[in-house]
Amino acid sequence: MFRQIDAKTYASPQITLADVAEARALGVGLIINNRPEGESEDQTPGAEIEAAAREAGIAYVAIPVSHAGFSMPQLDAMAQALEQAGDAPVLAYCRSGTRSTLLWALTMARTGMHPAEIAEKAAGAGYDIAPIRAQVDMLAAQAR
């Protein structure tokens, strides 16, 4: 269920409380929730995931991303979360994993990672950054 994007980042569709144990077994040190609360009736509430994560010794942060798109404060929050995780693996989730992957892609572009490398890593995990490729290109160019 968890799709590995790069050496330390996984993306996933909505996780359950049982998935927190799987994340712990992988050595995940931070879970990032990219779903707004109440987005769908079948989603596990963030507070429940947070409690299970903390019980398992995993840090948790919510950076909700709606279908309206991405903002610079969300990119700042993602960059801060990834930095604070240090070398520990990170699991980001949303409804399908796409918004988490796209937020990762934009964040990596701001670090100057080459857009082709970003696209390749996302594709390797089964995600397409085409909807945000222009923004990835722009952010990567600004970082250089």
TrEMBL record:
Residues in Beta-lactamase hydrolase-like protein phosphatase-like domain copies: 2-109
Sorted UniProt keywords: Transferase
GO MF annotation, one: transferase activity
Keyword Transferase: yes
InterPro entries in UniProt: BLH_phosphatase-like, Prot-tyrosine_phosphatase-like
SUPFAM superfamilies named among the record's database cross-references: (Phosphotyrosine protein) phosphatases II
NCBIfam families linked: TIGR01244 family sulfur transferase (TIGR01244)
Annotated organism of origin: Novosphingobium cyanobacteriorum
Protein name: TIGR01244 family sulfur transferase
Gene3D superfamilies: Protein tyrosine phosphatase superfamily
